Amino acid sequence: DAQVMSVAAQAKGVWPDFAIGINLLTCSPRVAAIHAQECGLDMIWADDMGVSSRGMNAMGEWLSDFARTNAAIRLFASVAFKYQAEEPDPERAALNAVRAGFIPTTSGRATGSAPDVEKVRRMAVASGDTLAIASGMTPDNVAQYAPYLRHILVATGVALDAYRIDPPRLRQLIWIARSAGARLDGQS
Questions:
Q1: How far is CA 145 from CA 3, 47, 65, 168, in A?
Q2: Is the Cβ–Cβ distance between 138 and 158 less than 8 Å?
Q3: 76 and 44 in contact (C-beta within 8 Å)?
């Protein structure tokens, strides 16, 4: 995570107009939010930002306050997400995330696994069409999800290997997503 934070800060310095975000795996979302603020980053994403269909915990409340006072930093909050407890009401979780000032972000059951299209559709409707997806998107399947998405967080689906993105495959995914109706914001 220390390397990710350093690289993100350096990248923002070199490309100030390009949206740069972080997903820290060993630090809390609070640490990520503070770092994003200090470095002028544009977004953070975490597997658990303290929001679900049941409401928010203390971390969620802190992050919601942070979102209100730092509107330039987008917070991608995983809901109905892999590795979380089974979510009984994905639509309510998405709505609660939006109400907290977050971008609801969902996934399939595992890394590289696409979620159920109907779940994505329902969550998009509930969230006012602000939904993000962070699992399983590839050029082969993105068209069926695209009409419901505002953001796509992708790595595995366009990767050459564990460390490198395949630029032609990424361009293909973006083109297909936009052609199929995704309303992607900026560089999302």
A1: 33, 21, 31, 20
A2: yes
A3: yes
Sheet holding 21-22, edge to edge: 21-22, 43-46, 74-78, 103-106, 132-133, 151-152
Q: How remote is the C-alpha of 136 from its chain's centroid?
A: 13
Closest CA relative to residue 134, chosen from 67, 78, 74: 78
Looking up tokens 């082969």 gives 140
Q: Global pTM? A: 0.92
CB 143 within 8 A of CB 174: no
Q: Please tell me the distance from the alpha carbon of residue 84 to that of residue 96, in angstroms, as a whole number.
A: 16
3 state DSSP class of 35: helix
pLDDT band at 65 (very low <50, low <70, confident <90, very high): very high
104 vs 88: CA distance, rounded Å: 16
Secondary structure class of 59 (helix, strand, coil): helix
